[in-house]
Amino acid sequence: MLRYIPLISVGSVAVQIIESNPHLRSLLGWHLQQAGYRVYQSGDIAQARDTYQQRQPGLVILDSQLPDGDGLEMCRWLQTHGQPLSLILSARNAESDVVAGLKAGADDYLTKPFGMQEFLARVEALIRRSRLMSAPASLNYGDLNIDLVQRRVRYREEFIDLTPQEFSLLYVLTQAAGTPLSRSDLLRRAWPDAIDNPRTVDTHILSLRKKIEDDPRQPGIIQTVRNVGYRFNVERAVAKEKGSLTEAGEHSEQPTLASVSK
Q: Residue 28 belongs to what domain range?
């Protein structure tokens, strides 16, 4: 039986840590990575904004006091740039400080010092809450539509006959948001049973390419990353909807979530 894949799995969630203390930043990042999250770290607001716009994390953890500005101002900035989940870390523990953080747009507020188990529990609770509030029914990448409810794929308005395993593999690749995944990662995330042969991934990738690539011999959507594995090329998939990848000055859009449950 095919293993159920949740709409928001830990491995698919990107977390950005904005913390001025490099030791605490590294410690938090290490624990989150051990828990299975993809982690990006920033030490100040300027760096944090660039990282956020490039990576579009689902959760931002930020210090209330940063070397080049107020963390609450960064929190307000996030509200106008995608509104990710946000958790403020602060040594200020007065009720007025907590209220100010929540009014700035934070989803939670954790005072320093704190235990690592509590920190991880807060992160998990935020993501679980988000999953319950907004689970997408489908994912759209240009001409490619992935129906997460019916587990069907439509490419250029035609339904593609994928096997259950091919669907799971495609889903896992898209959830990595362009990050390359090794064969071992794909076997662990997309296969229902433990498999030791990484070449199994190559066989299924080849089959997927034959079904969704214009030219499987020169794939543009599911790319091979040398010495790593494979990645889903979000930019190429979305740009195909516009009919050209060579239009000067035009940047690719991010994939959209369709039919979002309220």
A: 10-133
- For residue range 247-259, list pLDDT tens digits in order: 433 443 444 444 3
| Residue 84, preceding peptide bond in cis (omega within 30° of 0) | no
Render 107-132 in DSSP notation, one character per residue: SEEEESS--HHHHHHHHHHHHHHHHH
Closest CA to 66 of 84, 85, 83, 49: 49
Question: Where residue 212 sits, what CATH number does that domain have?
Answer: 1.10.10.10
pLDDT digits (tens, 9 = 90+) for 167-183: 999 988 988 878 899 99
Contacts 24+ apart (CB under 8 A), 79-83: 79/104, 79/105, 81/52, 81/53, 82/52, 82/56
| CA dist., res. 23 & res. 246, Å (int) | 44
Residues with Cβ within 8 Å of residue 126, at least 6 apart in sequence: 59, 85, 87, 107, 108
More confident call, 123 vs 241: 123
CATH number, domain of 54, equals 3.40.50.2300
- Count of C-beta atoms within a 10 Å radius of residue 150: 10
- pLDDT for 225 equals 93
Residue from 243, 58, 237 nearest 253 by CA:
237
Q: How many domains does the chain have?
A: 2
DSSP designation for 157: T
Domain assignment present for 230? yes
